[in-house]
Input
Amino acid sequence: MDCREIPPGVLRDDLLQLLCRCEHYPLTLLLAPAGSGKSTLLSHWRAHYSSRALAYYPLQARDNHALRFFRRLIESIRAQVSDFDLSWFNPLEASLSPEVVGEYLAEALERIDGGLCLVFDDFQYIREPAILEVLAALLERLPSNIRVVISSRNHPGFSLTRLKLANQLLSLDQQDLRLDANGVQQLNAHLGGPALSEAYVSSLLAMTEGWIAGVKLALLAYARFGTTALECFNGTQPEIVDYFGHVVFKGLSPNLHEFFLCTAILDKFDGALCDHVLQRTGSALLLEELSARELFMLAVENQPGWFRYHALLLTFLNSRLLIEQPQLISALHSRAADYFLARNDHDQALQHAQRSGDEALFSRLLESSCAAWIPQGQFNELLKWVEPLSEATLLASPHLLVPLIGALTLSRRFHQARYYLDCIQARQDPAAPLLEPLTLQFLHLNLQLFQHDLDFHPGADCQALLAPGVHHGIRAVSLTILAYHHLMNARLETSIRYAVQGKALLSQSGHSFFESYADLIIALCNRYAGRASSARKDVYSDYQRTPKASPAWVNRATAMVVALYEQNQLVAAQQLCEDLMAEVNSSSATEAIATVYITLSRLLHRRQQTVRATRLLEQLASILQLGNYARFVSQLAQESLRQAYISGKSASLDSLAQRYRLAELLAEGYWDSARPHDECWERYGLACVYWLLGRGAKVRACRLLKVLDESLRHSELSVRRLIIEANLMVAGNSQPDLAAQRLELLRLLDAYGMVNISRSVFDEAPGFGPGLLALSQAGLLDIPEKYRESYAEFFSDERPANRSERNINSLLTDKENEIFAHLLSGLSNSQISAQTGVALSTAKWHLKNIYAKLNVANRTEAILCVQPRTSQN
Output
């Protein structure tokens, strides 16, 4: 073993060698009762394991929730595989069947270079069918580079028959985990007991059948009380529990006795929590003492100072507490609830409030938690606790019903939100209203906008929600909602004005989620108005101060993606998109989801990663099926046809045109004349232009572009109009008349300014960049140096096709050059690690730096970028 920390506990070489055989089996099942030594065995095995990257996932009871389970799984994998490709698997896709999600997960894992071993510890906590069905589907399609190890007290809950019949399952059960005579002696020495005779060892093994928890209990008693304890130990499982309670537990001092009993209500604890719940001091020192005595109190991994009781001991202590001091239970849980609430751990607070049996306390804490969750955007937590309540309880509790309707709306569960609004409306009594009229009006406004999108038309009475006397929370959120409405309808200045006012109020009242939503609206307004530099300046500071764990981070990170992309900082934009893919979920704003998926797809397509790019668009299409999202579908249509046109895939162009009925719309005269700005009409129109250009119908494409240009002429969407005019400039020049192109371009520059020719213009007007380059090379266009540097791919004398001629050695450090040489020779990451003498994780870190310096995404692109050079040699 290398310099890694040696895990505690007795090292059982024979069992370790048995578990090491997992490398030859897709699935290894470690199935045994509590106290059988599974976690200790896994700790030693993990310290020795070096065949693949290892993602260790210790499970808890609260992981029995699909969204949390898969998010933590992704985090565990990404901790070991930093470039894990989330575009192939994202738990957001609730519309997909578990079988399809399992297939996506298998495909994502298959792309991990060097392989991975997934270890699920304490799997007995997982019972949710959705999780089990996904994992079952994964195991049916498990890639050859992946190994799975499951440690559990119970059968994992899905069929293993096929794996057994195919000899693809390594199963270690309680028979395998039994201690033998040598193991008993080792454990006894580890616990500091005097040497045991062979007779005593045989007797102990006969009584306990090698069950390590029973052996340990017996040996602890033997170390303290001598051979009498072993002689009295009868070995049956109920007797072991009885022995623990009457010898070990009763041997504690009254102070420790009470400490053990009263802390049994806690799943895990540290000194401060124990002090508060038990109304005492000095618990931290006591915990250190108890931990050193190994009285089945275990340290919580990655949480220094925190402990938990062994599951059997916890059950025993709770039963003794119920017998000895039942009158304390409610008060203990109440104090624990207060402690966690003060630390904003609302989930733990509510669990204890619920267990206290004090309904008034639970209701009070739930209302307090909802009041905290809504401003922070923690809609999943709110729904978890409030949804199970009965309809009668909710209708009697407006402070719960209002946030529930808001959370349902913002999680796109519109029909349920509408149901509760209808229930309120039916019970609304003018003399004694269930809800204040303005609150009810606000909930309707919120639902109508997000459910109906472009079809939403606010009435004149919406202005009542903006009056100075209205509750500041309702007024601030209403301003933000109406800002979004104006954004969708291309009234950018009005949208920004509302969003800025809303942001100021939201900041004052601590509504961080809607404040970040206002940031996203402002960023999008600046994007469409052609103010890319303003967009970044406005969002950067807010983005920097927002913790990634906050739901507000998704909105602010999406705003940063917009700013980075438009300023052509594509590497940073792509990295942020990749990070966002792990965070967006069903409660994220649809605007954020669509922006992240489309932007990342566009960036991947630019780097020739067309399979990933297409898959992202397909995944977005499945997400958008869940609601009335015509505007986002039109954005998806435009991007899909743009990529197909650029790739020269005529069959894909025709297929997409058929999917979106472009030929029918053309025949119906959909774009024959201009109309007031309609985003769907414009986006589908540009998609149709790509299709027509792909078919060689330039004249018809130009005619359509002129109609779109006329529509945008009087709108505030200067960048959208610039994109249309850039397309018209490219498509309208049938001959390479540089003089005419120069005049047209100078007109555009005079109208919009060079700085506003952002990345969107180059990407959505294919051929525009090469046109600028031709004019620049002919000396007909003076490009500012700063702009030339920003868009070097278009204006540099060194074209992308000649990238292989660069002196790559000068870009890389000596160690990177060494590793890159091994990569070019075809070695895997593990082989590179062995050849260079660096850890596998260090080798991967160097490779990631190499890819960044070469502006490539993976080893294949890295090899391709030097193929011309190597072939010349």
Notes: Residues 13-177 form a domain with the Rossmann fold fold (CATH 3.40.50.300). The radius of gyration is 32 Å. The longest strand covers residues 146-152.
